[in-house]
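Q: Given only this backbone (153 positions), what sequence would you predict?
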């Protein structure tokens, strides 16, 4: 599934729910979807419905016909410098650099984590899975309480 098709699915679902509640069609359109509809991610493969164009004009939104890359300045040099300051490797073919540039907060959290301590904590919290009698690791991104409730429910 492509990112745009996921947006279409979500927008469709939001429209059905809104219409069931008696609200106007196209009442809720997320900014990410607007960006795609307005051409900021590139030219759409087809024409927009006239009601969407009218809604965009009513809300003062501007259609973009330029190069989508112009909206995103090249910031790799900035991230390359930050990686050098932190003594982080760029990775083969700069894959670490690209990961850092796309997800800076998550990448920094990943790099400053203490893997040995985290993995010890995960093993300490491991519990047997009662359905298969195998040991199952808890997801460190979820609370242990929610995880155990899910197992017992």
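A: Predicted residues:
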């Amino acid at each position: 599934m492509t990112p745009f098709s996921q947006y279409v699915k979500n927008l469709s679902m939001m429209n059905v729910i809104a219409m069931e509640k008696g609200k106007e069609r196209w009442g809720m359109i997320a900014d990410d979807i607007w960006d795609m509809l307005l051409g900021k991610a590139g030219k759409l493969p087809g024409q927009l419905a006239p009601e969407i164009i009218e809604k965009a004009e009513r809300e003062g939104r501007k259609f973009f016909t330029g190069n989508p890359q112009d909206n995103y300045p090249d910031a790799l040099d900035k991230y390359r410098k930050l990686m050098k300051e932190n003594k982080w490797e760029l990775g083969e073919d700069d894959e670490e650099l690209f990961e850092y540039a796309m997800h800076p907060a998550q990448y920094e959290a990943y790099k400053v984590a203490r893997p040995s301590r985290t993995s010890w904590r995960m093993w300490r919290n491991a519990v047997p899975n009662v359905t298969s009698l195998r040991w199952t690791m808890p997801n460190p991104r979820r609370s242990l309480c929610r995880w155990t409730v899910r197992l017992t429910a």
